[in-house]
Amino acid sequence: MAKKEDATVEQKLRALYDLQLIDSRVDEIRNVRGELPLEVEDLEDEVLGLKTRIDKLKTDVETINFEIGAKKNLIEEAKALIKKYGEQQKNVRNSREFNSISKELEYQELEIQLAEKNIKEFKAQIEQKKEVISETKERLGERESHLKHKKGELDAILAETEKEEQALLEQSEKYQDEIEERLVKAYARIRNNVKNGLAVVPIERGASGGSFFTIPPQVQVEIASRKKIITDEHSGRILVDPVLAEEEQEKMQKFFQKL
């Protein structure tokens, strides 16, 4: 390829079309991967979320078991006090002392009942959380299996295409460095504005590639002369003649086959 400043219009058109063919090949490779990288990322996030949830539930169960232990200790303390007050009540000297101890006994009995109720509720909570843990573990197993499958798919595609994609990206950068900056910017702008990423297209059946708008014969002659860069007035795409396109396609196809 000639230097930027010395290149003829035809050389610029060929370089731009070659760049388009390279970038289109990269697009094809990425389309093959499709949504797989995002699917894998989403699955990894979901698996991490499920693991975090299981850890939290297990911590909750440990906390509740600690609370149950505390309530059991409270019951034992209350029973010890009941025994103590029971002995004291046998030796009371008047009804006031008897009533006072009776109230303490009643209070400790209520403490035991409340603690037992709490323990029952705590145990119910543990059962519920264990059930959720079991369900979450089952879900985690499914998601991990699905993730492994999707990762396998992605790794297989990457193994097939990663080397080629990297070589193409390097070649794309090389071409961009050798093309005038204003043309590279125009090319990038057009590529970003069209759905299929085609910024440079050949004339096909009297219309620009992928378009139904006919190009006037006089304009077609100008394009074929390769004396100036012409864009499609409808899509803004840079136009090249079919012969130039076919020649560059054959050249680049040989390059792609070597990758």
Automatic annotation (TrEMBL):
All copies of the C4-type zinc ribbon domain together span 208-239
Q: Check the record and name the Pfam families matching this protein.
A: Zn_ribbon_9
Matching entries from InterPro entries are given as:
Oxidative_Scav/Glycosyltrans (IPR052376), Zf-RING_7 (IPR003743)
This protein's UniProt keywords? Coiled coil
| Stretches assigned to coiled coil | 40-178
Protein known as: C4-type zinc ribbon domain-containing protein
Classification lineage = Bacteria, Pseudomonadati, Bacteroidota, Flavobacteriia, Flavobacteriales
